[in-house]
Prior knowledge:
- The complex is a heterodimer.
- Chain A has helices at 4-13, 21-47, 55-62, 65-91, 97-126.
- In chain A, 80% of the residues lie in helices and 0% in strands.
- Chain A starts with a helix and ends with a helix.
- Chain B has one domain (26-130): Up-down Bundle (3 helical TM bundles of succinate and fumarate reductases).
- Chain B is 74% helix and 0% strand.
- In chain B, 20% of the residues are buried.
- Classes of the chains: A mainly alpha, B mainly alpha.
- At the A-B interface, helix 1, helix 2, helix 3, helix 4 and helix 5 of A face helix 1, helix 2, helix 3, helix 4 and helix 5 of B.
Amino acid sequence: MIDVETAHAESMYTRRERPTTAWVWQAATGVLLLILLTVHMIAQHFIVEGGLRTHAEVVDYLRSPVIFVVEHLFLGTVTLHAMLGIRAVLFDFGLAPATERRITSWLTAIGVLTVAYGVWLLWAVAF
Amino acid sequence: MAVSTPSGPSRVRSAGRWFDVRHRGPGTWAYALNRITGLALVGYLYIHLAVLSLLARGPGSYDRFVDLVRSPLFLALDLVLIAGWLIHALNGLRLTVVGLGFGVRAQRTMLVVATGAGLLALVVSAVLLFGD
Lengths: 127, 132
């Protein structure tokens, strides 16, 4: 028999019906982030002896082709995960569909600007 | 066709449902913590980007900043950040598994395992941070 807590979690927070596309993306980017953030942390703090402590060390680090690709992937994934998370919190307000569409548009714009700034920064620092 | 949406006060009540953990069990506490840490991590993402913009200004400003953040106070803040990330990541993984319909009846066990793994990882992180 399912206890009260489990039933509560099932009814409020889990998708008993078909998961929404946004929920699937949030879950997928979350799992991908676990991998990318682990690579990001291990590469920065353990593979580089003593960690990245100076500007010159960061530039050298970013000039590695594999790291350069991983950092771009990390930036895109973390931004998408963050925007979907904010969207989920805001949608809990029970807004009108038109307002929800506006929120999605705004968050898309903020996400695109964030990624664009991050990509510019990566290229400006590395080259 | 007009769409019925909650009015102001009921809208706030509805949105804050996840935040109200009174008389609720550990699963609800974990879910609320997941959202709070998520919102805090979004804030950190933008702080991190702002700090990294120092890299574009050249070695002077970035190297001075790194000297500052190697102080014990900033290392302690790093540990708070790692704790927030561990809560969000491990609990998020648990919610994803449960959300996909797996292990719904074992979610309390998963919560205990996630808490244990998180605490262990936090201790290892503290040793690595302060033992350096």
